[in-house]
Amino acid sequence: MLIHSFRHFYWQNFNSLDEGAAYFHVKPITVKRWLDGTIPPNAMAEKLLIIRARGYLPNDLNWQGFKVNEQRSVIITPEGREFAPRELEAFPLWRDQYYALKARLRRRCSWSDSFPSSNAYRL
Fold it and tell me: Domain limits of the chain?
Protein backbone atom coordinates (compact mmCIF):
# COMPACT_ATOMS: atom_id res chain seq x y z
CA MET A 1 0.00 0.00 0.00
CA LEU A 2 1.29 3.45 -0.82
CA ILE A 3 1.92 5.97 1.97
CA HIS A 4 -0.80 8.36 0.79
CA SER A 5 -3.34 5.48 0.65
CA PHE A 6 -2.35 4.38 4.15
CA ARG A 7 -2.63 7.97 5.38
CA HIS A 8 -6.05 8.40 3.76
CA PHE A 9 -7.41 5.15 5.23
CA TYR A 10 -5.89 5.95 8.60
CA TRP A 11 -7.56 9.36 9.00
CA GLN A 12 -10.79 7.95 7.61
CA ASN A 13 -10.90 5.38 10.42
CA PHE A 14 -9.15 7.03 13.37
CA ASN A 15 -9.50 10.43 15.02
CA SER A 16 -6.06 10.61 16.64
CA LEU A 17 -2.61 9.06 16.74
CA ASP A 18 -3.38 7.56 20.15
CA GLU A 19 -6.52 5.83 18.90
CA GLY A 20 -4.65 4.21 16.00
CA ALA A 21 -1.70 3.29 18.20
CA ALA A 22 -4.04 1.50 20.60
CA TYR A 23 -5.65 -0.37 17.70
CA PHE A 24 -2.30 -1.48 16.23
CA HIS A 25 -0.70 -2.08 19.66
CA VAL A 26 2.19 0.26 18.95
CA LYS A 27 3.32 3.63 20.32
CA PRO A 28 1.88 6.84 18.84
CA ILE A 29 5.34 7.84 17.56
CA THR A 30 5.38 4.68 15.40
CA VAL A 31 2.04 5.62 13.84
CA LYS A 32 3.32 9.17 13.27
CA ARG A 33 6.38 7.78 11.46
CA TRP A 34 4.15 5.58 9.28
CA LEU A 35 1.97 8.55 8.38
CA ASP A 36 4.78 10.97 7.56
CA GLY A 37 6.68 8.36 5.55
CA THR A 38 9.75 8.19 7.79
CA ILE A 39 9.35 4.43 7.93
CA PRO A 40 7.04 2.28 5.80
CA PRO A 41 3.92 0.98 7.56
CA ASN A 42 4.12 -2.54 8.89
CA ALA A 43 2.52 -4.98 6.42
CA MET A 44 0.25 -6.41 9.12
CA ALA A 45 -0.82 -2.89 10.12
CA GLU A 46 -1.81 -2.29 6.51
CA LYS A 47 -3.91 -5.46 6.48
CA LEU A 48 -5.54 -4.57 9.80
CA LEU A 49 -6.34 -1.11 8.50
CA ILE A 50 -7.98 -2.58 5.40
CA ILE A 51 -9.98 -4.97 7.58
CA ARG A 52 -11.13 -2.08 9.74
CA ALA A 53 -11.93 0.10 6.73
CA ARG A 54 -13.91 -2.60 4.93
CA GLY A 55 -15.35 -4.41 7.94
CA TYR A 56 -14.35 -7.63 6.22
CA LEU A 57 -11.37 -9.92 6.30
CA PRO A 58 -8.73 -9.90 3.51
CA ASN A 59 -9.80 -10.22 -0.10
CA ASP A 60 -8.86 -13.87 -0.42
CA LEU A 61 -10.94 -16.90 -1.38
CA ASN A 62 -10.24 -18.52 2.00
CA TRP A 63 -11.96 -15.60 3.78
CA GLN A 64 -14.81 -15.13 1.31
CA GLY A 65 -18.07 -14.47 3.15
CA PHE A 66 -16.50 -13.89 6.58
CA LYS A 67 -17.23 -10.58 8.33
CA VAL A 68 -15.99 -8.76 11.41
CA ASN A 69 -18.35 -6.90 13.73
CA GLU A 70 -16.02 -4.60 15.60
CA GLN A 71 -18.67 -3.23 17.99
CA ARG A 72 -19.50 -6.71 19.30
CA SER A 73 -15.94 -8.05 18.80
CA VAL A 74 -17.02 -11.12 16.86
CA ILE A 75 -16.10 -12.84 13.62
CA ILE A 76 -19.13 -13.91 11.59
CA THR A 77 -18.85 -16.96 9.34
CA PRO A 78 -20.62 -17.21 5.98
CA GLU A 79 -23.19 -19.51 7.67
CA GLY A 80 -23.93 -16.81 10.26
CA ARG A 81 -22.11 -18.39 13.23
CA GLU A 82 -20.38 -15.91 15.50
CA PHE A 83 -17.35 -16.35 17.71
CA ALA A 84 -14.98 -14.13 19.61
CA PRO A 85 -11.33 -13.93 18.51
CA ARG A 86 -10.25 -15.38 21.88
CA GLU A 87 -12.18 -18.55 21.04
CA LEU A 88 -9.69 -19.22 18.23
CA GLU A 89 -7.15 -20.19 20.89
CA ALA A 90 -9.45 -22.99 22.09
CA PHE A 91 -10.22 -24.49 18.66
CA PRO A 92 -7.13 -26.77 18.53
CA LEU A 93 -7.95 -28.07 22.03
CA TRP A 94 -11.58 -28.72 21.07
CA ARG A 95 -10.49 -30.53 17.92
CA ASP A 96 -8.03 -32.70 19.88
CA GLN A 97 -10.73 -33.50 22.46
CA TYR A 98 -13.16 -34.42 19.69
CA TYR A 99 -10.71 -36.83 18.03
CA ALA A 100 -9.74 -38.35 21.38
CA LEU A 101 -13.40 -38.95 22.25
CA LYS A 102 -14.05 -40.39 18.81
CA ALA A 103 -11.12 -42.82 19.17
CA ARG A 104 -12.24 -43.76 22.69
CA LEU A 105 -15.77 -44.52 21.51
CA ARG A 106 -14.42 -46.52 18.57
CA ARG A 107 -12.35 -48.66 20.97
CA ARG A 108 -15.31 -49.06 23.33
CA CYS A 109 -17.64 -50.15 20.54
CA SER A 110 -15.19 -52.69 19.15
CA TRP A 111 -14.67 -54.10 22.67
CA SER A 112 -18.40 -54.44 23.38
CA ASP A 113 -19.04 -56.06 19.98
CA SER A 114 -16.88 -59.05 20.96
CA PHE A 115 -19.42 -60.17 23.59
CA PRO A 116 -22.63 -62.08 22.88
CA SER A 117 -25.42 -59.81 21.83
CA SER A 118 -27.53 -58.88 24.79
CA ASN A 119 -29.18 -55.53 25.07
CA ALA A 120 -28.66 -55.50 28.85
CA TYR A 121 -24.87 -55.48 28.52
CA ARG A 122 -24.47 -53.22 25.51
CA LEU A 123 -22.59 -49.98 26.11
Answer: 3-83, 85-123
